Amino acid sequence: MTRSIFPSLATLVVWLLPGVAEAQRAYTEDRISQLERSIVEIQSRIEQLRQQNQQLQQKLDKMQSSHESRLQRLERGSAKAPSPRASQAKP
Q1: Between the CA of residue 68 and those of 33, 61, 75, what are the distances in Å?
Q2: What range does the domain containing 57 cover?
């Protein structure tokens, strides 16, 4: 009885293998396509973030330059102007 099951089982496996292999190949191709789409989306997002980063860096550079020039003007102005205590001490 067990001998008659094995040939049937072997025949069934041989018959199903091409279908299983085809299903596996289709799944693999579909998964590769999904991954390729994900890569394209990620690359696009990276480019957006690079541009945003560049814009923010430019704004930061402008702010730093502006603050430095303001600080220099304040420092030059305070060197010229007498301190409030010195002017109060002279009646």
Answers
A1: 52, 11, 10
A2: 2-66
The confidence band for 88, taking pLDDT boundaries of 50, 70 and 90, is low
Q: SS3 letters for 17-60?
A: HHHHHHHHHHHHHHHHHHHHHHHHHHHHHHHHHHHHHHHHHHHH
DSSP conformational letter for 81: S
**Max CA pair span of the chain:** 126
> What confidence tens digit (pLDDT) does each residue in 45-60 have?
999 999 999 999 999 9
Q: How many domains does the chain have?
A: 1
Mean pLDDT of the chain: 83
pTM: predicted TM-score of the whole model, two decimal places: 0.56
Asked, for residue 47, whether it belongs to a domain, the answer is: yes
What letter represents residue 72's amino acid?
Q
Q: What per-residue confidence (pLDDT) applies to 1?
A: 46
- Asked if the structure places residue 77 within a domain, the reply is no
